[in-house]
Design brief:
The complex is a heterotrimer.
Chain A lengths: L3 E2 L12 E5 L2 E5 L5 H7 L23 E5 L4 E5 L9 E4 L3 H16 L15 H9 L17 E2 L4 E3 L9 H9 L5 E4 L6 E4 L11 H6 L5 E3 L12 E6 L8 E7 L2 E7 L12 H5 L14 E3 L5 E3 L2 H13 L7 E5 L5 H13 L6 E2 L8 H6 L5 H4 L5 E5 L3 H4 L1 H13 L3 E5 L12 E3 L6 H10 L11 H12 L4 E6 L7 H14 L4 E5 L5 H6 L6 E2 L3 E2 L18 H10 L4 E5 L3 H4 L3 H10 L2 E6 L11 E4 L8 E4 L5 E4 L12 H11 L9 H11 L19 E2 L23 E6 L7 H5 L9 E2 L1 E3 L1 H7 L5 E7 L5 E7 L7 E5 L3 E2 L14 E6 L1
Parallel strand pairs in A: 2-6, 17-18, 17-26, 19-20, 19-22, 20-21, 22-23, 26-27, 27-28, 32-37, 33-38, 34-36
Antiparallel strand pairs in A: 1-31, 2-3, 4-5, 4-6, 7-8, 8-11, 9-10, 12-13, 13-14, 15-16, 15-28, 24-25, 29-30, 32-39, 34-37, 35-36, 35-39
Chain B lengths: L5 H11 L9 H12 L4 H11 L3 H8 L13 E6 L2 H5 L2 H12 L12 E6 L11 E3 L2 E3 L4 H13 L36 H8 L1
Helix pairs in contact in B: 1-2, 2-3, 3-4
Chain C lengths: L33 H6 L4 H7 L3 H10 L12 H5 L9 E6 L9 H7 L1 H15 L3 E6 L4 H16 L15 E6 L9 H8 L24 E5 H5 L1 H13 L9 E8 L5 E6 L5 H6 L13 E5 L19 H4 L10 E6 L4 H15 L5 H18 L7 H12 L29 H4 L1 H20 L9
Parallel strand pairs in C: 1-2, 1-4, 2-3, 5-8
Antiparallel strand pairs in C: 5-6, 7-8
Helix pairs in contact in C: 2-6, 2-10, 3-6, 3-10, 5-6, 5-7, 13-14, 13-17, 14-15, 15-17
Classes of the chains: A alpha/beta, B alpha+beta, C alpha/beta.
The complex binds flavin mononucleotide, iron/sulfur cluster (SF4) and FE2/S2 (inorganic) cluster.
Chain lengths: 830, 202, 462
């Protein structure tokens, strides 16, 4: 059974707080609350520049000075660094206060170029606003202003105009304190201080765009946005990022029906206002010339040619009707879709078509059982002060960057202890409390040792100390959260399930967050786009109203679908925003499947390798163009909103499903989004009392919790011993920037994709006598050898070899073989 | 080019070992780098970043705050003339102008032969001996213009062996003999020193 | 005993009549060696300390009312008492002496490093800590050499380090050195610098070093001269110490008297017993104004101090008297200016110092000090405007809200505004730049006006 729950609903306030007087009126502040925040809660805005509620205050701009009397006479104090103390008297309007603020403003403006008309920030600039509100009007500064070379690029995405900078330390503080990438810094001293990078070292951070958003002036600007619009032309809508499963809250900005900017929205529950550069700049893809804007069908000569919708839909209906058995149809994809579209397609295919070969994960996910069945944590509960987090999975910075920032903060500031059980050292670096980097195949064994307390001796490279530290944390009475994901595409999910079994046994109170990468994958699984389940994680045997033809037996996952295509037991392949040819780890299998399969139908937004092979292509509207709902990794519901008109003949995915149903003579039972939602509410456990616009759920939206009537079946499995002494266990994982369709379609982002190399521990490389950076010969089992560049990397455990997936350079899928629990490769000097 | 040489890496390790946190050694290490090359090179800053475990941008952020660190080649002798109040009262500015004329450079400049860099500096803690200057931070007191000329010709002719080249600070360094160190307290350590506990309890 | 003679090395010290507490070895050529130290009672205080309990030693220091010699004049014993019972804790010695006019800590470090080292051990012992950093100003290589050599000798002799003097007490002293930044003399900036950062001050509260200092651990920052007093105090006792100086300010201070006097120099002077007049004119001190000129003004406590004038000559060197009179004794730096001095030029020179040395953290200081400098420079360059005088005062008031501390001016019926100034900044550096401006304009406004009137009314070029 599922239920909605609002974990944020605050406990009734018993402690009235700290009494203080603000401009003559008595108020109460929270314990430890900063004066600037307390004042804001009571409707008094104190002007400020350097203060940012999500960063440690530095109190350096001095704009927030107010007169405070703590009993020893009134004096000016920076309200951004002053916790309210009992009976403090604060005057934000007194003459000394306004005089100090006017003074600071005047001083900030003396060296500031008044180029507001050509500044991206003009119209939404706190300095400009404060200057109008408090400023002296006319400058008494007749000397020469400070001069710097006009905007300099400090990275591929960000420009810096030092003349406009007011040295508030926000960008630099963000870089070091929040992102952990201190690559921009104050340089020089006094009035000659500037922000800059080290010569020839870019500000290459996955989070660089946040500095643009928090810069209180126009000193930092985003290259993709420069001169794209003026603030007064912009219109704004709140939405949820669908780039990954964190579901960061965003604001979409458009001008003249084009998306021109995305900004982070400060949501307490999720991203705190921060975004990765991918979440921030991906909107460029909407405008890409690669967009599919009209239906295509393959003509007699084999070319895809434009056609009319009803013709394309007719062909889809035929292709779905042709197979003698629904088991001869396979459906891959669906994580790109909104929850509503996912439901519509699930109902079309499963409810009306009895198809269960449906998988929204492309061989890089986790078993649906784990995702749907494990007791869920929230990001907040995982990050709660004093908690323990076990990371059984990938480098979060690469996969879920905003979640990474939350966890990083929790470790740095809230005493959260991280136990890392990842196939190699992650970006958390030395901040971890215990680091275990098991070799692929030994993950389960390590988890079992932790559960059994068999931590007296080292296991592989994990020392007894690390093991026992991890054990203590795992079984401690601190709140324990396991973050679970796919740290290695070359290690089977059975091994992860086995590790989860041990961890649950060790600490039955542990809660779980499934760190899956694909946008709305949790929504897809919840809506039934996964074999073996109907929406709401109900078994296939459940009776769902209107799902009269639901499948009777469990279908195949993506690997199974592709294999049956190869075997000739699949006639029709439907792709719901999926590109298995480039995105499925074992690209050889995918290619063979496309060779053999009968008809391919693709519902997509871009022309991809797989779409290029489709017989029918239906163009879909994408993020920013459709209304709907997102379900993040916590199970949190957040609205996704349309901001611009979708191009050409594109349509929302759920409408396409409804059209196909109608053309097939069926009826999905809804023709509007509202009807569709009512269908979900009526038929999907847990959604009955959801307010789709989040009203009534607090600011952060409801969480659909994973309280199920069933438990995942988990078995602990034996470790897989290495094949021989010369093999290295393969670790394949994802990086933030890869050759994903959207990344390549976003003009500013495609340049971010780097070259993959194979990396091996320094010890192994020395043993193999291969100098770091040289080419070597690499083979899997008896397969063909490839020549690849091999680098030394101490973050890779001894005995392993690491390659990132889907980059330029070394192609990891050359080494990936479906169906093997682990993969051993052999590296030889050329 | 211009990372720390082997001997200096060893020296750097010795210095780092005297601090509870590596980054604390940064300023002394920047001096080591400056001593090696006469100024702080980009490569040296990258090297120091590795040695103390921070980014090069952080090294530059610290280094550029302190005026003794130079990021371009300097003269062999850095002549710093104090013009702050005590010296100004007794002819510091005139001495500076005289130096500008004699050396043919402005403050911040270096003579073509690479021998002298001139600087107009703040109080150097010799106020009672005004006007004064430092050559590579060695003080010279109560100079009139002739004294200045004599000093310059001595430096030119190499008859001031007491003044090492720019970049070299103290000629004597602290070295704690093996086994004599008490043990630097790391901030992560807890509890008072044993001797303190013992002596405070009785 | 030699009197009124210069000792040739590390010039400036005047060995006159009077009590010698911290300068007793200055007269010797080899004053900085371990041999000289040991043969003249060096390390006796430390040895005595090691036989006491830490709390007893702290009590003696508290009883002695040893006022900090770094500028603020806060009693060392009281400050030590602020440390919470948290370990580890650190002692940081402030040898960054850079305040304009100040010249004493360098002498103490160059001429008697062992006295300082002994003082450090005594303090560490009393504070119950075993890690001390001795931060010496970057531009003082000779002081660094002398301290390095002294530390090396003392370590070798078992006087520092493991098992000091054969006891169970182990204390390390690490010589650290800076690289040129006046602000690093401010204690929280000093701590930042010692952490390898830019020397930008931290806000107090919450970052009072005694509670949250180096690495956010309890830290005492003490000035070199403060600590140099400890061997004498422990050896001779608090009561004997209080025999010297005044009741409120016992003991002596090393004063650097520079500028227009006949015999500038560094003098060890009893606190609260000598007036400025005696210092400037007395035969045991400076012997009069240079060339027998008239006194125009003097800075009683370093570049940060508001100026005094003839009317203040009879004030005693007593912090408790000087503060209400509108200035401070600060770091023991007195700069004397005679009637030939151009007040505007002197004002500019002091302001320029603060503009150059601002760390850049707080807007008012970063922007305000350089604006002040630009206006003053413009006036001197002949581009002043009548409104510039008030503008200077108003820019100053943006850094230090008026009224700014100034001395009384009886002839114009103006009363003194007591020290310290208010501030819109984190630390007092920015507000210090207002001292010369307020002092000079209030007293010598006609000089400013004359400079402005003498020029074409074109205004500035920009
Ligand atoms: C701008 C500024 C500069 C300072 N410079 C020094 C200095 O060079 N030496 C010093 O001992 N104290 C200096 N101080 C005072 C220190 O902050 C601190 O009060 C002192 O070192 C404490 O030592 P004490 O208590 O022994 O006097 C300075 C303070 C300020 C605000
Ligand atoms: S660039 Fe912007 S955010 Fe960074 S310090 Fe300057 S004003 Fe602040
Ligand atoms: S907002 Fe408080 S000092 Fe900047």
């Amino acid at each position: 059974m599922t239920a909605t729950e609002n974990p944020e609903s605050a406990s009734p306030e018993t402690n009235p707080g700290v009494p203080f007087t603000l401009n003559g009126v008595e108020f109460h502040a929270n314990d430890g609350e900063l004066l600037i925040d307390a004042a804001k809660r009571h409707g008094v805005h104190i002007p400020h520049f350097c203060y940012h509620p999500r960063m440690t205050p530095v109190g350096m701009c001095r704009m927030c000075l107010v007169e405070v009397d703590t009993g020893r006479g009134a004096g000016l104090q920076p309200s951004c660094m002053l916790p309210v103390t009992p009976n403090m008297k604060v005057n934000t309007e007194s003459e000394p206060t306004t005089k100090a603020q006017d003074g600071v403003l005047e001083l900030l403006l003396i060296n500031h170029p008044l180029d507001c008309p050509v500044c991206d920030k003009g119209g939404e600039c706190p300095l400009q606003d404060n200057a109008y509100a408090f400023g002296p009007g006319e400058s008494r500064f007749v000397e020469e202003k400070r001069h710097y070379e006009k905007p300099i690029p400090i990275s591929d995405l960000v420009y810096l105009d030092r003349e406009r900078c007011i040295l508030c330390d926000r960008c630099t503080r963000f870089a070091s304190e929040v992102a952990g990438d201190p690559l921009i810094h104050f340089i020089g001293r006094g009035a000659q201080t500037e922000v800059n990078t080290f010569p020839e070292h870019e500000f290459s951070s996955y989070f660089s765009g946040n500095t643009v958003q928090i810069c209180p002036v126009g000193a930092l600007t985003a290259k993709p946005y420069r001169f794209a619009a003026r603030p007064w032309d912009l219109s704004e809508t709140e939405s949820t990022s669908m780039v990954d499963s964190t579901g960061a809250r965003v604001a979409l900005h458009s001008s003249q029906d084009r998306l021109v900017r995305i900004q982070g929205v400060d949501s307490d529950a999720t991203n705190w206002g921060w975004l990765s550069d991918k979440e921030r700049f991906i909107y460029e893809a909407t405008d890409s010339p690669e967009r599919l804007t009209e239906p295509l069908v393959r003509d007699g000569s084999g070319d895809a040619v434009p056609t009319r919708w009803n013709n394309a839909v007719k062909q889809v209906v035929e292709a779905l009707a042709r197979p003698s058995d629904p088991r001869r149809i396979g459906v891959i994809g669906g994580a790109r879709l909104t929850l509503e579209s996912q439901y519509a397609w699930a109902k079309l295919l499963k409810g009306l078509g009895a198809v269960d070969n449906i998988d929204a994960q492309l061989g890089d996910g986790l078993p649906a059982e784990l995702v749907l069945g494990l007791p869920k944590a929230t990001i907040d509960s995982a990050c709660q002060p004093g908690g323990v987090v076990v990371l059984l999975g990938p480098d979060l910075k690469e996969e879920l960057p905003t979640l990474y920032l939350r966890l990083r903060h929790a470790i740095q500031f809230d005493g959260v202890s991280l136990v890392e059980i990842s196939p190699r050292v992650t970006s958390f670096g030395d901040t971890v409390a215990a680091r275990l980097n098991p070799l692929p195949g030994a993950t389960g064994q390590i988890a079992k040792a932790l559960a059994d307390g068999m931590v007296g001796t080292s296991i592989g490279r994990s020392s007894a100390e690390e093991l026992s530290a991890a054990h203590k944390l795992l079984i401690s009475d601190r709140p324990v959260t396991v973050i679970l994901g796919r740290g290695n595409l070359a290690e089977s999910t059975d091994i992860i399930a086995s590790a989860v079994a041990s961890l649950r046994r060790a600490n039955p109170n542990a809660k779980f967050l499934t760190a899956l990468r694909r946008g709305n994958v949790h929504g897809a699984l919840e809506m039934g786009l996964t074999p073996g389940y109907l929406p709401g994680a109900q078994p296939l045997s459940a009776a769902v109203d209107g799902w009269d033809m639901a499948p009777r037996s469990r279908g195949l996952d993506t690997a199974g679908i592709l294999k049956s295509a190869v075997n000739g037991t699949l006639d029709t392949l439907v792709l719901l925003g999926a590109d298995p040819l480039t995105d499925f780890p074992d690209s050889k299998l995918a290619a063979a499947a496309f060779e053999r399969v009968g008809t391919v139908i693709s519902v997509d937004t871009f022309m991809t390798a797989s779409t290029g092979r489709a017989d029918v292509v239906l163009p879909a509207a994408m993020f920013g163009e459709v209304d709907g709902t997102f379900l993040n990794l916590e199970g949190r519901i957040s609205p996704v909103q349309a901001k611009v008109t979708s191009p050409g003949q594109t349509r929302a995915d759920w409408m396409i499903a409804a059209e196909v149903a109608a053309a097939a003579g069926g009826d999905l039972g809804f023709t509007t989004l509202a009807e569709l939602r009512s269908d979900i509410a009526a038929n999907v456990p847990g959604f009955s009392d959801v307010h789709w616009d989040r009203t009534g759920h607090g600011a952060d939206g409801p969480v659909i919790t994973g309280i199920r009537s069933w438990e995942p079946t988990l078995t602990e499995t034996a470790p897989i011993p290495p094949a021989d002494d010369y093999g290295l266990r393969l670790v394949v994982d994802r990086k933030l920037w890869d050759n994903g369709t959207m990344t390549l379609a976003a003009a500013s982002l495609k340049g971010q994709v780097g070259d993959a190399v194979m990396s091996v521990s320094p010890a192994d490389l020395a043993r193999l006598r291969i100098p770091s950076g040289n080419e070597a010969s690499v083979a899997v089992g008896g397969g063909d050898a490839r020549t690849v560049v091999v680098m030394s990397d101490p973050r890779v455990p001894v005995g392993a070899a690491h390659v990132p997936f889907h980059l330029n350079g070394v192609d990891a899928s050359d080494f990936l073989v479906t169906g093997q629990p682990v993969i051993d490769i052999r590296i030889q000097a050329l | 080019m211009s990372r720390l040489n082997e001997a200096n890496v060893e020296l750097a390790q010795e210095i780092i070992a005297r601090y509870p946190r590596r980054k604390s050694a940064l300023i002394p290490l920047l001096h080591v780098a400056q001593e090696q090359n006469g100024y702080v090179t980009t490569a040296a800053m990258e090297h120091l970043a590795e040695l103390v475990g921070i980014t090069p941008a952080e090294v530059l952020g610290t280094a550029s705050f302190y005026e003794m660190f130079k990021f371009e080649p300097q003269g062999k002798y850095m002549v710093n003339i104090c013009t702050n109040i005590s010296c100004q009262l007794l002819g510091g500015e005139e001495l500076l102008h005289h130096a500008e004329k004699t050396l043919g450079i402005r403050p911040g400049g270096t003579t073509d032969d690479g021998l002298f860099t001139l600087e107009d500096v703040e109080c150097m803690a010799a106020c009672t001996e005004a006007p004064c200057l430092q050559v590579n931070y060695r003080h010279e007191y109560r100079l009139d213009h002739d004294d200045f000329d004599t000093l310059i010709s001595e430096l030119r002719s190499g008859s001031r062996p007491d003044i090492p080249d720019h970049g070299t600070l103290g000629l004597v360094r602290q070295h704690i003999p093996d086994g004599r160190m008490a043990g630097i307290d790391s901030p992560e350590k807890t509890g008072s020193p044993e001797w303190f506990t013992a002596r405070s309890s009785n | 005993m030699a009197t009124n003679t210069y000792v040739p090395h590390a010039a400036g010290y005047v060995d006159n009549e009077g009590v010698k507490i911290v300068s007793s070895r200055f007269q010797y050529e080899d004053s900085y060696t371990l041999e000289r130290s040991l043969s003249t009672g060096g390390y006796e205080g430390m040895k005595k300390t090691l036989r006491m309990q830490p709390a007893e030693v702290a009590a003696v220091v508290k009883d002695a009312v040893l006022l900090g010699r770094g500028g603020a004049g806060f009693p060392a014993g009281v400050k030590w008492g602020f440390m919470p019972p948290v370990w580890p804790r650190y002692l940081v010695v402030n040898g960054d002496e850079s305040e304009p006019g100040t010249y004493k800590d360098r002498l103490l470090m160059e001429r008697d490093p062992h006295q300082l080292i002994e003082g450090c051990i005594i303090a560490c012992f009393a504070l119950g800590l075993n890690t001390c950093f001795l931060y010496v100003r970057g531009e003082m290589p000779v002081a660094q050499e002398r301290i390095a050599e002294a530390l090396n000798d003392a370590y070798a002799a078992g006087l520092v380090g493991k098992n000091i003097d054969g006891t169970d007490v182990s204390i390390d002293i690490v010589l650290h050195w800076g690289a040129g930044a006046y602000i690093v003399g401010e204690e929280t900036a000093l701590i930042e610098s010692l952490e390898g950062n830019r020397g930008m001050p931290r806000l107090k509260p919450p970052f009072f070093p005694a509670a949250k200092g180096l690495y956010m651990k309890p830290t005492i920052v003490n000035n070199v001269e403060t600590l140099a007093n400890l061997p004498w105090i422990i050896t001779n006792g608090a009561a004997n110490f209080k025999e010297y100086g005044s009741e409120k300010s016992p003991g002596t201070r090393l004063l650097a008297i520079s500028g227009h006097v006949k015999r500038p120099g560094v003098y060890e002077v009893e606190q609260g017993r000598v007036s400025f007049r005696e210092l400037f004119y007395g035969h045991n001190f400076c012997g009069g104004i240079k060339d027998d000129n008239d006194l125009k003004m003097f800075i009683p406590g370093g570049g940060s101090a508001p100026w005094f004038f003839e009317e203040q000559l009879d004030l005693l060197l007593e912090a408790g008297d000087v503060g209400p009179a509108g200035s401070m004794l600060g770091s023991g730096a007195i700069v004397v200016m005679d009637h030939t001095t151009d007040a505007v030029k002197a004002c500019l020179r002091v302001v320029r110092f603060f503009a150059r040395e601002s760390c850049g953290k707080c807007t008012p200081c970063r922007e305000g000090t350089s604006w002040e400098e630009k206006i003053l420079q413009r006036i001197l360059d002949g581009h002043g405007r009548p409104e510039d005088i008030d503008l200077l005062l108003e820019v100053g008031a943006n850094i230090s809200p008026s009224p700014y501390p100034v001395a009384a001016a009886p002839e114009s019926g103006l009363e003194a505004v007591p020290f310290p100034p208010k501030q819109t900044t984190i630390c007092p550096l920015g507000p210090s730049s207002v001292a010369p401006i307020t002092s000079a304009i209030r007293r010598f406004r006609p000089e400013f006006e004359a400079k402005i009137a003498a020029v074409s009314p074109v205004g500035a070029g920009a």
